[in-house]
Each structure stands twice: as C-alpha cells, then as structure tokens.
Amino acid sequence: MKELAELSKLLRYYILLSTTNAGSGHPTSCLSSVELMASLLFGGFFHFDADNPDNPNNDRLIFSKGHAAPLLYSLWTVAGKLTEQELLTLRKFGSPLEGHPVRAFPYAEAATGSLGQGLSIGAGIAINGKYIDILPYRVFVLLGDSEMAEGSVWEAIQLASYYKLDNLIGILDVNRLGQRGETMYGWDLSAYEKRISSFGWKTICIDGHNFDEIFKAYDEALKSKLPTMIIAKTVKGKGVSFLEDREGRHGVALSEAEFKEALKELGEIKRLTISIKKPDSLKPKQQALEIKEFTNRYNIGEMVATRRAYGEALVKIFPEFPDIVVLDAEVSNSTYAEIFKKHYPERFFECFVAEQNMVGMAVGLSLRGKIPFVSTFAAFLTRAFDHIRMAQYSEVNIKLVGSHAGVSIGQDGPSQMGLEDIAMMRSILNSVILYPSDAVSTEKLVREAAKYKGIVYIRTTRSTTPVIYSYDEEFPIGGSKVIRKSDKDLFTVIGAGITLHEALKAYEELKNRGIFIRVIDLYSLKPLDVETLKEALSETEAIITVEDHYPAGGIAEAVKSEVGAERVYSLACRKTPKSGAPEELLDYEEISAKAIVDCVNKLNKLFRKYKI
Amino acid sequence: MKELAELSKLLRYYILLSTTNAGSGHPTSCLSSVELMASLLFGGFFHFDADNPDNPNNDRLIFSKGHAAPLLYSLWTVAGKLTEQELLTLRKFGSPLEGHPVRAFPYAEAATGSLGQGLSIGAGIAINGKYIDILPYRVFVLLGDSEMAEGSVWEAIQLASYYKLDNLIGILDVNRLGQRGETMYGWDLSAYEKRISSFGWKTICIDGHNFDEIFKAYDEALKSKLPTMIIAKTVKGKGVSFLEDREGRHGVALSEAEFKEALKELGEIKRLTISIKKPDSLKPKQQALEIKEFTNRYNIGEMVATRRAYGEALVKIFPEFPDIVVLDAEVSNSTYAEIFKKHYPERFFECFVAEQNMVGMAVGLSLRGKIPFVSTFAAFLTRAFDHIRMAQYSEVNIKLVGSHAGVSIGQDGPSQMGLEDIAMMRSILNSVILYPSDAVSTEKLVREAAKYKGIVYIRTTRSTTPVIYSYDEEFPIGGSKVIRKSDKDLFTVIGAGITLHEALKAYEELKNRGIFIRVIDLYSLKPLDVETLKEALSETEAIITVEDHYPAGGIAEAVKSEVGAERVYSLACRKTPKSGAPEELLDYEEISAKAIVDCVNKLNKLFRKYKI
C-alpha cells in the first residue's frame, strides 16, 4: 500500500513534468485515472510481456479517453520501457509520444483521441480472444465519463453483451467534468450503473482513488461471467489542490510556477521501476475450420451482381487467407456477406444496425492479426466516417465493402444510395479503392484486397451485370482495363461498376454510326492507372468519365488531378436523386448509355466546329 | 372499435396495393405498425391541420423507420390528402411518394431511411416546442426495433431526458425481425423497457395490435412528465397469414398471386376518409430576448483567431436573425460558441459529446423555421457524416462550423485535426463552403451564412491570425479576394484560412527577391469564384493552391475541376501528420510560407529552363 502511494506520486510527477515541459496536454484528465491504472498495471491484474508487445497472450489496454496519453506514457516509464528523457519528448515533433496515442508508441494498442471509439476496438480484440484465437487474455478499456454521451459507446456495450464478452473490462473514470463543464450526470455513479447494467453488463461502483476498492473491483471483474464496467468516482486533477475538481482546467498544462507549487504538494518523489506481470505462454487454440469447397467459375455473358460475387469471393479465398473475419451490419442478405456466413459461420460476426461499432471492432480484430472484411450499404458507411478516419491512424489492415452504390439501386431512393462514398474513402490518405464492374474482376479484386496490407474499399453494385472478363484475367491494384480500343478512337470513355456497362452499350450504338470510342474500365480508382489514362488523353481527343456518384471528390476529380482537366469531361450525378427504375435514374442523372452517346456527339460537333 | 378494425383493414389494403403495384417496398414493416399509427392519427391523439402542414401548432410525426413510407402514404390517403390514384404512384419516377419519405411529400416531416436518425430530429422539434416557440405540440417518432442498435438513438434518448422533453413520444414497433433475421432482443419487451427507462424515459409496454392497450398508452404518454417510449409487441406482416412473423420477407413486395391471396384474407374493404383533429390555434410564445450589445470592430493587424470571431459574430448578428439557435458538442470553449451562450443562453443548447444527435436536432430545429449553427472540431463533424448526408434530403437550412482545421492545430496530433472535412462537405450536392482567413471575413461570412438558405459549412482556425481586411469589406458567397496583384505576377498562389497567411509571408519573401506572385484568398470554396481563377490562370504562368487539408476532394481538386489542371499545382498535406508545433507541421506537410517559396522557385526554374 505504501508502495502504491509512492507509485501514484511518481505517476503524478511524470504526468505534470511531461505536460508542463510540453506546454500542452491534458494533465487533469490524467490525474483522475492514476490509481485506477497504477493498480491495473502494477497490482498484478494486467499481464503483459513488455519485451514483446505483440505476444498473442498479452492482455490489452486501450485508452478510449485518448487525451490521457501522458498517463499512458508515464505508466510505461515506471514499467521501464521509457526513460525520463524520452518522456520529456511528449508532443515534440518526431516523438512517438504524441498528444494522443498512436501506434508509433508500441504500447498504445490503437490510435485514439476521437472519443467513444475505444470500447468498440476493445470489443473487437475481445471477440478475437473469445471466439477466434481462443486465448484467455483480457481487454481493458479506460473510458472518460464525458465520452459516455457518444452513441458508439452504447453500440459497443450492446454488442459486447450480445457476444458475451466476459473478457472485456471497462474502467469508467467519472471525474464529473467534461471539456467545458459538468457532464450530464456529474458524480451520480448510479446513473451510469443503472444504464450500463440495463444492457447486461456487470457494474462495480467504487472510489477511484481508494486502492482497496480498486483492487477488489479488478478481482471481481476478472471473475465476472459478464462484460464488466468498473465505475469509479474520481477527482479531475487529483493530487494537486489547485487543480482538483476545477472547471476551466481541461486540456491546460501547468505554468512553470504552478508546476513548482504542485511539486511542493507532491513532496518527495521516489523513483520506481516495476515490472508488469507476464502472461502465461499459450498457443492460440484456433479451431481448425473445415474448408468448404466453392469453385464456381463465371462465364462471359452470365448476369451476376458484383455484390453477390463479393460474397462468393470471400468463400473462395478463405482457404488462402484463414485470418479473414467477416462483419456486416444487418444487411448480409443484401451485401451477400451471408454467403460467407453460411460456409464459415465461426468467422462471421453479425454487427446489427451499428456501423460505427462494426468499424471499431474491425480495427480491434486487425490489431490482433485478423483481416476483417466489413460490409454494409455504401451510403451507410458514412455513418462510420470518424471511425474510418481514426482507423488510418491505427495503421490497420481492414477492408470496407459498400454495396448499393449509386442511383442505379433504383426505387429505394436517395437515403439508400451511396453517392459520396468514393469521395469519403479517397480522403483517407493511404486508402486503396477498387470498383469492379463484373463478377470476375470482383473475385480477383477481393483477393487483391486480402493480399494488400492497409485500408481497402471495394464498391459493389446492386443490379446484375454481365460478366465481361475471362476467368483467367488478373486485376492488379493500380491497373485498369482498356476493353475497347482501335486506332480510330475519337474519345475515351472511362467507366467503373455500373457505368462501365453503360459505356459498353454506348460503344455499340456509336460504332453503328461509325464513331469509335476507347472504353476503359477504371476498376482501380486509387491508385489510378495514370499511364493508361495519359496514353488515352494523348491518343484520343478527350476523356469522358462516367460515374454513379456525386461530382465532388469522385472519379472525374481523381482523373483530373492526375492527367489535367483540359480535355476531361465529367458525367456524374448532378441532381438530387429520387425513386425510380434504375434505367430511368441513370438517364435522369445523365450517366446512362444514352447520355454517353449524347455527350460524345455533342463534343464531336463542338470539336469539329472549332477545329479543336 | 369496429371502425378501427375497418380502418386497419383499409390501411393494410393500401399498403399491399401500393407496394405490389410498385413491385418493391417494405410491406411487412408497414403492416406491423398499422394499429399503432391508425390509433395515433385517427384516435384523436394527433392534432394536425391537414390543410396547413406548416401550422406551428401541429403535432409532428416522424417515421424514423423510414422504410415504412407506404404506411405513411396510406395514412394520409385515409386522411383525404392523397387519392388512391396518387397512392399508386409509389416509387415511380417523379412521384413525391418515394421509397423512403422525402420533403416532396408535404406530410413527411423529414427525409428518413437511414435508420436511427428520426428520434434526434424529433428531439430537435421538441426542443423548439418546449424552449423556443413555447407551444404545446407533441412530437411522435415511429421507430423500428432493429434501429435501436444504432448508437445515435441512445444519444437522442440521453439528450431528450436531459432536456426533459416531455413533449416527445416514441413508438417502438417491436416486430422481432430485422432485415436479415431476428434482432438482438427479439420480442423481449422487457429488454427495451429496462434499457430505455434506465435513461429516464417513461416506458409503456403493450400489444401493438390491441386498440385498448394502444389508446391507453397514448393517453398515458400525453400526460407524462417525462419523454415516453411506447414499446409495442407487434407482428411483422400482421394481417396476412403467410407473411406474419416470417423471415426472408423484409423489403419484399408481394407477387400478384400473393396479393390476391392477401386480399381474400382481408375480406371486404370499406373505403373511409377520416379527418385528423386540428390543433388549437395558438401563437408561438417566444420569449422576447433582451438584445445584448456587442460591437467590437476588428482593426487591421490585430491577432484574432477566426474561431473566436465566429463566436463573436453569432452575437453580433443575432438581433438581425432572431431565429438563430446555436448547438455545440462539449467544445464550446474551443469553438467559441460559448461567447453566444454567454449572451443568449436561451438559444444555446449543449449537445455534449454526441455529434450525430446534434446534427439530427439541428435538422429538427430547421424544420421548425430556426437557423441552427452547429459547431464542433472539423474532425469530429465526420462523426455525423450520415446525418449530414441525410440532412440534404430534408432540404434544411443548417450551418455547420468546424474548428481546429488542419495540421496547424499543432501538438494535439491527427485525431483532432480536420483534414477531410472540405472533401466531406463538398460531397453534399448543394452545400456552400466558406473558409475565412481573418476575423473580419469570418464575421461577414457568418452573416452571409445566416442569410443563405441551405446547408453551409464554415471552417475555422485554431490559432490567431492577423486581421487583413478593413471592417467595411464585404464577402459575397462565391467570391474571392485578390489581395496581392501586379502586372508582374509570375504565379498565383491561392490560400484559405491559415494558408492564406502563409501565402502572404511567402509573398514578402519573394518580393524581396524580385519575384511577384498574385495572392488570392479563396474564402468561398463552394461555389468557387471561377472568373477570378480563370483570369489568374490566363494572366500568370501557373496557379499554386495551398491547403491545410488532405489532397483528395479539397481545394486543389475543386479548383482543377473548374479551371483545368494543366498549370495548377497543389500543396496539401500528403503525409500522415504527427504532434508538433504548428510551424513545424506546416513545414513538414510543405504548406508553409517556406514551402510556397520553394515551390515558386522550383516552378520558376522549370518554366525558364523549358521555356514554358
């Protein structure tokens, strides 16, 4: 107990030292969690092989309240994995000790800092431990009370209960104060207890600065048969009298003078280095899954929806990629993830109508070496944009699949139409975006996606479309297919997905009139096949891009960014869509075969008239 | 009671008739809610002036389960506002009766169809009734059980309780079946009751097909001092034996043969037209708010953060726009929405860390004629992308304000940096995007945003920047400011926000070396001042755009889309950011004054060498 008090003082010292030195940070948010975290890591509850962060037996700790990063770094300094000198590099350019945790710091499980995401990530890691790797590790997630307002936390709470994640333990630091003032419930622990327990979690309310209560709570939590939330009443700024429970001190570092005062209050600091208990050495007890045969080939001309080919592809490639895990948000009969579910139910996890949590869980699964394929309607992936944004900072390997792209879904209308998903996924710095036009290319690209390390987005189509490629064709990321070409090509028409087929129809119509167009299937939207595009621009008079997507941030802008916009014309959805038959809507948005033919004819007239 | 049974049969007939005729739709999801909605509208509980949907005294009904649209249309057919012929235009191109409700149908309060958003919209309308217009109308929201998995519903539930919205009544249709199978809780009403009541709502569990119970429930709900959720056990497909409680019938219309069978089961249909009870005629009892004087002018050279100017602008323009309501998500001391809160607390609503619900509530407030200004960090607006996406289909008048744009926020690191927000907002078809570089332009643009009817996004900067405009300057939407110009301009540098100031620094440095650049402040990113851009491109050798934003979908792509990309060069954030001082990060991402100078020099050398 004496050592715990010394330990807490040392941690407080490190927190104040590092943030004061940095001139910024969230010291008061760190100070409230000190005893909770000190007990966890150094009280023997947390088992972690500090020399091997990737040891599959390690317990996992996620700071959902990512702004408490200085506490995380302080803990690992005590654990002997950071020197005090290194600790002083907090928030400095080039240091792995960033303002909020990132993977550059090996003991940060995930990048956090956008509140309300950590519990989903933890749930994903817990699912891996309970159902896939079958290892007894625990997942601990430190949450702030302010972030309990985020709906995504309640998605995670629901799903964790549904999946009986008794290996998931949340520690809720109820310090009463959010950023600008008191939270909705202040210190009323019963408010959290009532709500969280109503979702089927075990809850344990404690004084978050009382070691006896904290230790008892962890003991209980580790024995619990339910996911557990330790709800701890704490004091923001605890340990420094002029900071304790004060408004207006969120995210404010101490001044030099304040730091000196605080040091006086802390008194003598005893340096300690304490080892973290190592886990037992166990091998993942993954079930050996029986491989299900699935070998249908697609024949040219067959009508197959690319969304169906997606589901079938998952089954076909699973033997080669046994780390694949498939998640879907209540629409697996539409995205066809259900085909995989039927064959490998042990590796399919229904996420219900909760897309944010689904992406968070995918991040968690990826951190434990799995390859998550995550599907819903393209439009509904926008629900999870912040989770996708943060996923890139966790440097994860996840595959997002958006079906029902564009107005071509028809009568359901705009709420169900993905028209901004390409723009969204292009804004993820290092994403790969694939948009197959037929079943063969879908299958090949799903395999490319599984091979690739990083965030990949695959856009699939609702309606059936003809198979146009031979089953032996390959589709490298960053490539394209020039599927109609002659030395008489007037213009180049670039399509993808449904518009590729419209382009082919337009080709036939124009050919009958003696006009030849080059047709390119731009199945890789990111990275682009710049060489082929430049070649087309130099060998034909203009490029016309056609996309079932809004204009901003889509295919036209991507192409123009690379090859210039001088002779690049864009057909895209420029009007608010409505219900209607797919063909009607393609015409209405002027991205149909008819619209392509019109555009070619108009441009042709224009170019002849002005001798361009 | 006999009439209610006849009414229910008629509604079922209309639902089956319209969806069968359309060949698509969600009849089974409609059938489970028939008695609930029939009782509401025709049992005297719902007061609505059917000749005047915009009557401020009307109760409001939102179909959060938007796919039950055919039921909505059927109800209004019985109310005499649609003919049966019109009903048969369901899902047809050009009909206001779309697959999911849109505002083209005057009795759809909002566009829904992306699940889990209706309760937030309802909460916004309820807040208007209880706190702003002070009118006794009620807001009813029909929810499906499947969408209760969405975290955004729990955000709305929390906030509705916090704001004591006793005028908000949810009707939860628990028909057990989601799209692809059973929900997490099936028919266990107590699961919903436990959870929802734990958040401080009154809950009433009933048989959703029993009129006695339904009527009692509405009676109770209308007397409740708490927000109320009526939790109704229902049968999906109720009324047609081969549809009732069947899996695999979600979103599937009946075949002609099935329809004939169903008609046999329904028996004789009696046509009815029933008026909906009109509300009492009351005038909004808005508090007359005391106008707070706030008249500080900004002087050229003064260092003021545009985020602060935003907060001050709100106070300055409020007297001219008394319909303004300000919402913020726990960061009002960072976004400076707190300045407005301090002056007009009655028009400020804290939304806590729940951005999705905040945007949903803004939609609701806008539908009731208010002008919501909604703020949080630009990065965290991505949390609400699906709500923003759907907001456009409700044709609302909302202003979104994202602070802490770009890497220039410094040490907090990437989790807090908005680097994809311009791309996101550009993908909203008819959005306006404003990015002021100083306090004067911020104030003027906030006023332009308030004047404009539609979705506006304003991007603000964390750090202080010098005032560069005279206080009398005007800033029309779609304009730009050429702030450095000569007949010796070699290149044009386009900046906005923080990069405009870097461009000005670069200008000085280059001028000292005898090189002149045109500098344009692109404060209106959408719509763009195409004329000025084209002029710059024709009068100077190249355009260099500089943005504190990722490359995709941002300023460069917007500019290239309009004026071509031949001689347009882009400086943007092309590397994953880190913690660091703002200046360090601007240099690291090569969007600083130094980087601009380098770029100009490099291009200059290149152009001279190859005599471009």
Automatic annotation (TrEMBL), chains A, B:
Domain called Transketolase-like pyrimidine-binding: residue spans: 304-467
Keyword Glycoprotein: no
GO molecular function: metal ion binding; thiamine pyrophosphate binding; transketolase activity
Superkingdom: Bacteria
Catalytic EC class: transferase
A GO CC term assigned to this protein in UniProt: cytoplasm
Keyword Oxidoreductase: no
Subunit structure: Homodimer.
Family classification: Belongs to the transketolase family.
Name this polypeptide is given: Transketolase
Organism: Thermodesulfovibrio obliviosus
